Amino acid sequence: MQFQDDIKMLFFSGDTDGAVPALGSVKWIKKLNWNVVKPWVGWVQGEEVQGFIEQYEGGLDFATVRGVGHMAPQWKRAPMQYLITQWIHDQPI
Fold this sequence. Notes:
It is built from 3 helices and 4 strands; from the N terminus they run E-H-E-E-E-H-H.
C-alpha cells in the first residue's frame, strides 16, 4: 500500500471505556492490515505509566490511556497534554 509521508494520525482510547472500548479500536486498526513500525511500549508521564502506544506504517499512532474512558482529556488532563504535545512536536513519548 502506498502512503503519503506528510500525514500523521494519533488515535487514543481509554482502557476502561465501555462505549468505545480500546479492544474495539485495536480490532479496527488491525483490519487496516498496516505493518507495525514500533510495537507496544508503555508511555510514562509523571513517573507513572499512563498507557501504551503502538506505531503503524502510514503515520498512525495508537495510544491507550490507563484508567479512563473516552473522556480521557477531561479526566487525565496532564498526561493527555503531555501525550499530545510530545506527539505534535515529534518528541519521544
